Amino acid sequence: MEMEYQEAKDKFISTWGSLGTLWGINKAMAQIQSLLFISTKPLSMEEIMKELKISRGNTSMNLRQLMDWGIVTKELIPGERKEFFTTEKDVQELARHIAKERSRREIKPVIKILKDVSSIKDDGTEKTKELIKQTKALHDLAETADAMMNKIVNQEQNWITKSLLKLIK
Amino acid sequence: MEMEYQEAKDKFISTWGSLGTLWGINKAMAQIQSLLFISTKPLSMEEIMKELKISRGNTSMNLRQLMDWGIVTKELIPGERKEFFTTEKDVQELARHIAKERSRREIKPVIKILKDVSSIKDDGTEKTKELIKQTKALHDLAETADAMMNKIVNQEQNWITKSLLKLIK
DNA sequence: CTAAACTTTCAGTAATTATTGAAAGTTTGT
DNA sequence: ACAAACTTTCAATAATTACTGAAAGTTTAG
């Protein structure tokens, strides 16, 4: 398949946008990030609005969320009154931020609840035993998965990823 | 904190249910799965509906989806006319199914598109070069992450998980 | 074959989530 | 201090997604 620049760009933005759900963010947020990710220079709110055909308010709110996630930053360009925005351009670094935030916002709280639930008093009934057993298993799995993800993604270089891959291939 | 069985059960089901989005399924689906996961016996549609206070139609549709995902199965109980349902009880096995399905349904198609986009003809312009470079980086990252996830989760025992954890600690 | 017991489908509706746009707020230059 | 240039907020609205329930479909027993 051969695509023109514009077609490829649109495809990338819409695909990455719809994938947003996979890493827990909404469409507009993901699309703004995509746009910045392939831009050769920082973009202003005006440019983002126009490019993605979304409102000023929407752009403002989603940019803020992206900054909260730590993957977009304000860039002040000397002589310009407007604010400009860039995203983390290094995929490894991007993955690190996303994994860290998801862990903090979603996974850790669930692990906490699993721990609480699996720690209820065993009253000897079969159903209580089952609840404890199953939530404990889930707790251990979630904790292991979370720890692995963070460790893997936190290496400065990706040497460990490469060596791990070899190990398990 | 000390909870009663019923409180702990409700908390588990609602927490796990709201976490559904994290692994790409909806609330009712996740709640049905949770209920089965801590049940000591197969449950009928009637029992699921009553327990979760959801309609017959909703229950039917979500059970089907869970079966499509391969994590819930029909259990025919001799002498009973009704159908009964159980979920995979082993967390390792559960994680395997979920990872496999997510990879197949969501990650693989995105990798394919990233590949297409990063393979457009380089017309020499800066913006085209940037699009190619960044989507290629994303493609490689996605492919590596997908491969790792599948490898890790596909081990019959979790010996490898344990040894990997040691390695990267 | 018929009826009872059960499951599935799907059009309508409800609930949730995202988006707009205009008013309010802020910052900067003169 | 004022006004221009810009950003943020948020109530109203739109779009999306999930849920209901009754009708249609299926299976089983007699």
How many helices of chain A? The count is 7
Largest β-sheet summary of chain A: 3 strands, antiparallel
Helix/strand-derived class of chain A? mainly alpha
Question: What would CATH call the architecture of the largest domain in chain A?
Answer: Orthogonal Bundle
Helix-strand topology string of chain A:
HHEHHEEHHH
What is the class of the largest domain in chain A in the CATH system?
Mainly Alpha
Number of strands of chain A: 3
Largest interface: A-B, 60 and 60 residues
CATH superfamily of the largest domain in chain A: Winged helix-like DNA-binding domain superfamily/Winged helix DNA-binding domain
What distance lies between the first and last C-alpha atoms of chain A, to the nearest angstrom? Answer: 31 Å
Question: What's the multimeric state?
Answer: homodimer
The CATH topology of the largest domain in chain A turns out to be: Arc Repressor Mutant, subunit A
* Contiguous runs where pLDDT drops below 50 for at least 5 residues of chain A: none
CA gyration radius of chain A, whole angstroms: 21 Å
Domain tally of chain A: 2
Shape of chain A: elongated
Q: Roughly what percent helix of chain A?
A: 55-70%
Tell me the strand order in the biggest sheet of chain A: 1-3-2
How much strand of chain A? 5-15%
Kindly state the mean pLDDT of chain A as a whole number?
90
